[in-house]
Fold these 3 entries.
Entry 1:
Amino acid sequence: MNIRNICLKSACLGALAFAMVSGTAFAGALDSPDDMSPFFTDSGMKTMKPMEEFKAAFMAMPMEKQEAMKKECNDAAMSKPYAEFCANVQALGGAN
């Protein structure tokens, strides 16, 4: 094994380790409790707020977070666990 292969393997392993350790940095807006909690009535995030309050919370968010949520809700695989939430985002014009 030459030095080039060893360096390549080390770089790949380092990148993998970094991704595993900092995995929360790669989480989407729908996976962030801080982003999602304003839309629920309870701390366990089981009961969604009524649409009027949902809309107020959504509109109070920075545009970048709104767009991130819209994008994730338009991805069928990402939105599946958040179906009720994404339905409300779609009702607010979240479809592209």
Entry 2:
Amino acid sequence: MSDDFASRSMAVHLVRGAVGFGALVGSIALIPVVGAVSVLLLPVGVVALRGCPTCWAIGLMQTISRGRLQRSCTNGQCTLTVSDTA
């Protein structure tokens, strides 16, 4: 399993965020309308956000920087540089 939270594209990531945050907010906001059944939206939100809102935000930063930044390690020291292909 990868520790990468980035999505294939910015559009995909933003749709995941809209679905995830919408489901989380809906699970609370719809309680007066449909009762405890609205809590079933919680797992949808958690899956869409890949665990938590912070995970989604980390993935957003990774999606934005994908292909633009390059990490290179030499002799135990790592540096972050702008990629030539960006």
Entry 3:
Amino acid sequence: MGQQRAEGLIPFTIDLTFEEARRRAEVVAALGPDWDPMAALQDEEAAYALLYSGLDDEQRRVHDMLVAAGVLPGEGPGRAAAP
């Protein structure tokens, strides 16, 4: 039944590779010449450290549990700001 309906359809495909490359180039251009990706990553790391600093024992336990479950990123590879 489904195949009977599909026989009358014309396949439609579109390659968005060029548009994605153009979009990325526009994003980088909008960031401007003063944008420093390493400084941005270091600032992100500092903000992350500040966000989870000062946790009490129960909050630290819950944080560690969420990291172990994969809900929150842990230290090291896999974090956006990891070197």
